[in-house]
Fold each of these.
Amino acid sequence: MKHLIPEFEKMKERFPAGFESSLVLPCLHRIQADRGFVADEDIDGLVAYLGVPRVQVEEVLSYYTMLRREGIGRHHLQVCRNIACSMRGAEGVIEHACKRLGVKPGETTADGKFTLSTVECLGSCGTAPVMMVNDAYHENLTLEELDRLIEGLVVEERAGEKR
Ligand code: FES
């Protein structure tokens, strides 16, 4: 993460001195965008750079489900399992996605192409059930739509392999 320090320095300019802990979240976002996840050495580097307690960085990492500690597949399916989505069929969506992909929540397919995660509220309760595929929201999700989405991604992957 050392190569990101010039960017972190620019971010730092926007905060008053003594507010280093406010930089933990934006720095972790930037690290993840760079590496795909946050590694142990990134935590060590950030603790040393910001001078904040390690537990502060780990708290942020464990609270925000969008921050990852391991690499994921090329397509990340995140199904909300919170109350509104649960009441509107999220469990069935999760079960169906597990069957289609052959993985459990938190796992990546053997070919490294798909990771399935369950997450807490995605902030779109009025259109439950909701799933994110990479950065896109899919709302009022049905099992048929889930099948279409997965099939579309499989076709996209196959086309990529032929190129
Ligand atoms: S409960 Fe699923 S988006 Fe809020």
Note: The domain at 75-162 is CATH 3.40.30.10 (Glutaredoxin).
Amino acid sequence: MKGVTLENITKKFGKAHGVADLNIAIQPGEFFTFLGPSGCGKTTTLRMIAGFYFPTEGDIYFDDRNVSTLQPNKREIGMVFQNYALFPHMTVDENIAFGLQVRKLSKATIKEKVDRTRSLVRLEQYGSRKINELSGGQQQRVALARALVIEPDILLLDEPLSNLDAKLREETRVEIKRLQSELGVTTVYVTHDQTEAMAMSDRIMVMENGYVKQIGTPQAIYNRPENRFVASFIGETNLIKTTVRQVTRDEVEVESEEGIRLVGMPANAAASADLRQGSTVYLSIRPEAFGIGPGPNEMLGRVQFVEFTGVSIQYVIDVKGFHFTLMMINDGNELLAIGDMIVVHVPLRNVYFLGE
Ligand SMILES: Nc1ncnc2c1ncn2[C@@H]1O[C@H](COP(=O)(O)OP(=O)(O)OP(=O)(O)O)[C@@H](O)[C@H]1O
Ligand SMILES: [Mg+2]
């Protein structure tokens, strides 16, 4: 188990930056995830940790050792590439053994390690199968075994589940998490899927355009986003532009451009929110925060859209021209129909303030 520290890391490609001013301290044994839209710099950062790219500026440490310009094969990392990069004409065992042969271990040691790792990823029966005779999920596990067999200090995974169907993705996600906590290996995981990131990670780094937007636990990132980008990228939210009308010790009252008046609590705000009278703030209200019927922050809306997913029902309602998205747990009752009028409310603690 090793910690990974990135200090003031910038990677430039010509004049453009891939990533800029990255500062990260990943703890030994931590499951740390890079999350962000396509092109935000996730792979670039992972490749610098692996040693396939060297930083333009800044330093990378594994524990106290500066590895910024060390070659990949000297770093004791296991990496799973987005496309797996397996050898298709070789068998499962030959693929898993590859990294050990490069390290010139004895035949007996290699056999023992390959056997152990193959059963770790639950492919006991598949040792002599060719890669092109395996399903996508099985190939994914071979890639994982090949990365794990060398007993790496650090495991790097670049969107390892992106080629799998939804069910297999969920199963494999549980499997990776199980392996990671069993082995206690420091893991850096890359994904653009926010549910996957939240379900698996100790901490998440949200990136946009090569910059870090927030680092925190899944709960912190979901419940206390630091900016509008994080609020809307993680989960769904209703973002409303408002002006602060009145502030007391316990309450902040705001009004949207549509004339919707809402009340929240001053403590429930990002550091970026300026809660003085007359200033502009954004409200983030999660779809699941709404209740049906009268209550605090009561609003009357007209149903615009209904989507039934089994567990829940999503409604879009129009309140004075603003469209709110609501999510209700399916209680077996009849659904509302498009055009119905409905009274909803939002508890004060579910109103979250963000800066411009
Ligand atoms: N070798 C390269 N040469 C030039 N530009 C590059 C190179 N590699 C990446 N970039 C650019 O750097 C930025 C970050 O790319 P990166 O591959 O890290 O994104 P990503 O977050 O992994 O995206 P995705 O989710 O699509 O894989 C992009 O604008 C990309 O075009
Ligand atoms: Mg990538």
Note: The two ends are 41 Å apart (CA to CA).
